[in-house]
Design goal:
The chain is 45% helix and 18% strand. By secondary structure, it is of the alpha/beta class. It has two domains: 3-117 and 243-309, 3-Layer(aba) Sandwich (D-Maltodextrin-Binding Protein, domain 2), CATH 3.40.190.150; 127-240, D-Maltodextrin-Binding Protein, domain 2, CATH 3.40.190.10. A six-stranded mixed sheet has the order 2-1-3-10-4-11, sandwiched between helices. A five-stranded mixed sheet has the order 7-6-8-5-9, with helices on both faces. Helix 1 runs parallel beside helix 10, helix 2 packs across helix 10 (255-269) and helix 7 packs across helix 12 (290-311).
């Protein structure tokens, strides 16, 4: 064996040993979780996760609400497990629309998919439709007259609406808001007629009768809204959109540490009180392995890239 190969082999063994040792002694100082803006269901999930991890790891776990810039900060952080990123699917979707300061595959290491929330097709109660087929017929009779609210380009509610327009062959006008909460408020007030919010942001309005739910966007019905049909069951076979939330570490974080964190996250999310609280706000626990998270992100990215191409979507 050449001197270079021996040196590289020794280096690999040394790095592996360092990673295992680091995972065994970790953590020895506070951990920071970078995440979405405060007040959302994803923020709540971050705080519930932080509380459980703090108890199991024996160190403070601090939630730092930074919005989308959190991805860039995490990508630049040391790969030592003390800076983590807990964020929704725009982390891997927004780069399909525009240049950003991070690359998910290059800069981030998935630890676990934590929760998911399907989108719900909802309409203002004043709209005279009670099914997806009725909405499609109504929209076709009034091209360009219905408004649908979304948050930023690349968000799950934006993609859900564009997929609906493409598959149903309808012309509705998108109105983009800075956040999902503003989009929901515009629907409740009657400013918008249609919306596709994540279940986590609309359950309260559905339960109070302020909006009418027509269908869920996941491939299977959801226990979040019992009895609500899927979009596929409602006349659009193959329709599916879901909003995932994933916990990441910076790339090059030792695999042994990523594995340990994934195991800790799974235990935290399966605490009955945590699972029940998340379900109450429209989120279902996933608690995947790192490999499952990476595979889901890859397949979702490919699927959404095709949607962007087929629908001719651009940054707005």
């Amino acid at each position: 064996m050449s001197t270079l190969k021996v040196a590289l082999s020794s280096l690999s063994v040394s790095l592996l040993a360092f990673g295992v040792t680091h995972a065994q002694t970790y953590p020895v100082k506070p951990i920071r979780i970078l995440t979405v803006q405060a007040g959302s269901a994803s923020d709540l999930a971050s705080r519930l996760l932080a509380k459980e991890l703090q108890e199991s790891l024996g160190q403070p776990v601090i939630v730092d609400n930074r919005g989308l810039i959190a991805a860039e900060l995490a990508a630049q952080a040391p790969p030592d497990g003390y800076t983590l990123l807990h964020y929704t699917s725009p982390i891997w979707i927004v780069p399909l629309f525009r240049s950003v300061g991070w690359d998910v595959e290059r800069d981030l290491a998935p630890i676990a998919l934590t929760v998911f929330s399907p989108n719900i097709l909802v309409v203002h109660p004043s709209l005279p439709v009670k099914t997806v087929k009725e909405l499609i017929a109504f929209a076709k009779q009034r091209p360009g007259e219905l408004n649908y609210g979304t948050s930023s380009t690349g968000s799950s509610n934006h993609l859900a609406g564009e997929l609906f327009k493409s598959m149903a062959g309808v012309n509705m006008v998108r109105v983009a808001f800075k956040g999902g909460g503003q989009s929901v408020n515009s629907l409740v007030s009657g400013e918008m007629q249609v919306s596709f919010p994540a279940a986590a942001s609309i359950m309260g309005a559905i339960n109070s009768g302020k909006v009418r739910a027509l269908a869920v966007t996941s491939a299977k019905p959801t226990a979040l809204v019992p009895g609500l049909p899927t979009m596929a069951q409602s006349g659009l076979p193959g329709y599916e959109t879901i909003s995932y939330t994933c916990l990441f570490a910076p790339a090059r974080t030792p695999p042994a540490l990523v594995t340990r964190l994934s195991e800790e996250v799974a235990r935290a999310l399966r605490v009955p009180s945590v699972e029940e609280r998340l379900f109450s706000v429209g989120s279902e626990v996933v608690a995947s392995s790192p490999a499952q998270a990476a595979a889901t992100i890859k397949s979702e990215t490919q699927r959404i890239r095709k949607l962007i191409h087929d629908a001719g979507l651009r940054e707005q």
